C-alpha cells in the first residue's frame, strides 16, 4: 500500500505524477490525503470528505475533546454550552457570514480554557479573535530562557515566522514546501532577527516547522497549515497597510485563484477584522472595498 499525505501541498510535478501514477506503475492500494479535491486517473476511486466543523457541529466536537482532558472542569452541560458559545462568537463576521472552524482552533481554545479554569482564572482571558488564538499559541511555545539556543523574543519569532509563511504560501496562497536556501534568503530581509541567531532552527525546535528529506534534498514546511495561513495573512496585511490599491491587487489574486485559496482568504478576512482598525489600516473594522472583494471571491468560487 502507498500512502501520500498532504498531496495538495506538494509541487505541481509531484501532484501530476501521483495523478497519473497508475498508468506508469502497478499499485494495488493507494491512500491520498489532500486539502482540496485532486482527481486521480484510476478506476475504483473512493473519496471520503470530512464533515465540516461549524456552529452546528461544534458542541459535539468540543464535548468529545473535553472528555479527552481528564482534569477538565467543564463537566456540566451548562459549562460546556457556555464554552461553545465563546468559541462560536469568534467565527461570526457581522450578520452575513460564519467562518469555518478548524479542529486546531477548537483544540487550542479548549486547552487554554482548561488551563485558565485550573488556575482559577476568568474565562474572559480567553482569546477574543481567531488570530489571537493562533498567535497566543505561538508565543506560548516560544522559550524565553537566557540559555536557549537561537533564542528569539516573541516579536522576533513572529516576524520570522510571518516571512517564512508568506514564502510557503507563495503565489498559490496554499502552504507548501520550501528549501533552506529559500528560507535564508527571505529571512535576510527581516531586520528584527538578531545577528548570529538561526530563526529556522528555533522554529523547528518550537515545533512550528518540520524538516524532512525528499530524495537527496532537505525541505521545510509548516507543521500546521492554519498557522501558516494566519501568519501569511498577517504578513500580507502589514505590507498592504493603508494602501487601498495593494488590497485590491491582493483580493483580485484571490478571486483569480477561486476555491484553491479559501484557507488563506478566511485567515486574511479574520486578520483584517481583528486588527484592521486597531493597527490603523482602516478607519472601521469593516472596509467597504475589502468586503466587496471578499463577496466577489465567494460568488465566483461558488460557480
Please tell me about this protein's structure:
49% of the residues lie in helices and 8% in strands. It is mainly alpha-helical and 303 residues long. The chain has three domains: 1-49, no CATH class; 58-126; 149-303, no CATH class. It has a three-stranded antiparallel sheet. A two-stranded parallel ribbon has the order 1-2. The chain has a two-stranded antiparallel sheet with strand order 3-4. The mean pLDDT is 86.
Instruction: Give the class from helix and strand content and strand pairing.
Output: mainly alpha
What composes the largest sheet? Answer: 3 strands, antiparallel
Q: From the alpha carbons, calculate the radius of gyration and give it in angstroms.
A: 21 Å
Helix content: 40-55%
**pLDDT average, as an integer?**
86
Contiguous low-pLDDT stretches (5 residues minimum) are: none
How many strands in all? 7
Distance between the termini: 36 Å
Amino acid at each position: 500500500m502507498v500512502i501520500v499525505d498532504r498531496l495538495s501541498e506538494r509541487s505541481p510535478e509531484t501532484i501530476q505524477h501521483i495523478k497519473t501514477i497508475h498508468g506508469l506503475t502497478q499499485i494495488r492500494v493507494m491512500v491520498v490525503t489532500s486539502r482540496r479535491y485532486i482527481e486521480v486517473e484510476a478506476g475504483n476511486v473512493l473519496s471520503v470528505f470530512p464533515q465540516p466543523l461549524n456552529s452546528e457541529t461544534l458542541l459535539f466536537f468540543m464535548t468529545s475533546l473535553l472528555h479527552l482532558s481528564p482534569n477538565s472542569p467543564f463537566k456540566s452541560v451548562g459549562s460546556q454550552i457556555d464554552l461553545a458559545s465563546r468559541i462560536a462568537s469568534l467565527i461570526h463576521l457581522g450578520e452575513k457570514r460564519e467562518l469555518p472552524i478548524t479542529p486546531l482552533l477548537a483544540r487550542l481554545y479548549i486547552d487554554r480554557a482548561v488551563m485558565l479554569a485550573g488556575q482559577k482564572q476568568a474565562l474572559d482571558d480567553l482569546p477574543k479573535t481567531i488570530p489571537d488564538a493562533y498567535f497566543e499559541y505561538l508565543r506560548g511555545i516560544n522559550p524565553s530562557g537566557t540559555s536557549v539556543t537561537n533564542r528569539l523574543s516573541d516579536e522576533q519569532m513572529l516576524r520570522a515566522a510571518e516571512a517564512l509563511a508568506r514564502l510557503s504560501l507563495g503565489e498559490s496562497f496554499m502552504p507548501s514546501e520550501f528549501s533552506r536556501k529559500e528560507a535564508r534568503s527571505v529571512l535576510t530581509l527581516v531586520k528584527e532577527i538578531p545577528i548570529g541567531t538561526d530563526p529556522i532552527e528555533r522554529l523547528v525546535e518550537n515545533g512550528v516547522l518540520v524538516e524532512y528529506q525528499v530524495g537527496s534534498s532537505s525541505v521545510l514546511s509548516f507543521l500546521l497549515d492554519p498557522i501558516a495561513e494566519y501568519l501569511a495573512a498577517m504578513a500580507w496585511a502589514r505590507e498592504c497597510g493603508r494602501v487601498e490599491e495593494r488590497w485590491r491587487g491582493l483580493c483580485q489574486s484571490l478571486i483569480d485563484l477561486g476555491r484553491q485559496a479559501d484557507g488563506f482568504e478566511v485567515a486574511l478576512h479574520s486578520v483584517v477584522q481583528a486588527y484592521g482598525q486597531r493597527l490603523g489600516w482602516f478607519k472601521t473594522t469593516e472596509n467597504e472595498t475589502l468586503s466587496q472583494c471578499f463577496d466577489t471571491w465567494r460568488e465566483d468560487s461558488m460557480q
